[in-house]
Specification:
Helices cover 0% and strands 62% of the residues. By secondary structure, the protein is mostly beta strands. It has one domain (4-71, 99-106).
Amino acid sequence: MTDYAIVQHGGKQYRVSPGDELNVERTERDLKAGDPLTFDHVMLINQGDAIQVGKPVVEGALVKTQVVDALRGEKIIVFKKKRRKGYKRTQGHRQDYYRVRVESIEA
């Protein structure tokens, strides 16, 4: 069984293992490829047979990652309308992401 952790970042929870790559919301500005990004809101750690569950977070636990790339998600259309009132609004949105690689899980 592989080691993994559950972290919370940007209002979402992710199950991560060392070596995984994932897209997380860009909460810090101007990080370049190779910069470290640390998740300190670790909710659960599974190392071998030992499972640590936080209340709500595991004290002293860190997940260290490295930024691979800064990218943007697909464009979504936000459309609002009120019937019979002549009200229509169209707006687009593209979310900023960091592609990160998980380096280590420390408990």
